[in-house]
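Suppose you are handed only these lines of text.
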Amino acid sequence: MAREIPLDREDELLAFNTMLSGKTDERILLVEAQSGMGKTILLGEFEHSKPKRIAFAKIDFKGGGTSIAELFSRLRDKLGGKAKFPNLGNELKGILNPSIDISSNLMLGKNQIEAYLNGQDEQERQVRLAALTDAFFTDIRALGKLLLIFDTFEKSDESVKKWLSDSFLSRIQNSPNIFVVIGGQEVPEDNFEWDCIRRPLEGIPPEHWNKYVKSRGMKVHDEYIRACCKIFGGHPLNVKTHLDGFGVEGSKS
Ligand SMILES: Nc1ncnc2c1ncn2[C@@H]1O[C@H](COP(=O)(O)OP(=O)(O)OP(=O)(O)O)[C@@H](O)[C@H]1O
Ligand SMILES: [Mg+2]
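From them, the structure of the protein bound to adenosine-5'-triphosphate can be written out as follows.
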């Protein structure tokens, strides 16, 4: 499917590119806005505009049900597989629990990580999660320049939200080669352990929709476009849906 290019998001793209080129102190960009404001297509533009050579992974939590184990496993797969994660592998192998045959070939990927994280009690689980997180960061800090994009943060599991907001972003703060973008109807709250750039998305004003309808050869009056933008506060999905509908009807007449 052809990539949808967002209207009027040049400032956000500039903020992203400035961050990625290392010109800001912050390396965490949070994009919060309600549904249909264009977070996902903007994050797609970020991905498109990044340099091709840097390490990159994008995770969208939109389906829900992504556990921490699943997240580790998917990130490892997207970032080069087990060969690039020797420290994570050693940590997984190193646990002394005879009830878990961690070396078994039957226990792979996510299952192996799940077994590791599944300690006897909450305290043990926390200790293991911290140890696995440290091993994971030792590996990703060795990948060179790295960009991680997370979309639909609000749909991630509560445990994942907490882990990303605390342990993960705190370590990102101390990982000079790693850049992170998180988009969602909700994003992590401020935390004194890390600094970020926040870019809430605004509505799109009429002049951009004028160009949009002209570029598609649609016949829509300027006044109608202005009214649509006013009614919907420039909300892109709503304005676009109405203009597209009107454009179809208009072209029939
Ligand atoms: N800046 C924009 N210019 C033109 N169209 C846009 C823009 N932003 C959004 N749209 C339209 O709205 C649709 C929905 O956008 P998108 O999926 O990115 O929203 P979202 O903020 O990710 O919503 P959700 O929170 O539900 O995931 C896009 O497919 C596109 O048609
Ligand atoms: Mg989205």
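What can we learn from it? The CA atoms of residues 246 and 252 lie 10 Å apart. Residues 39-40, 151-152 surround magnesium ion (ligand 2) (CB under 6 Å).
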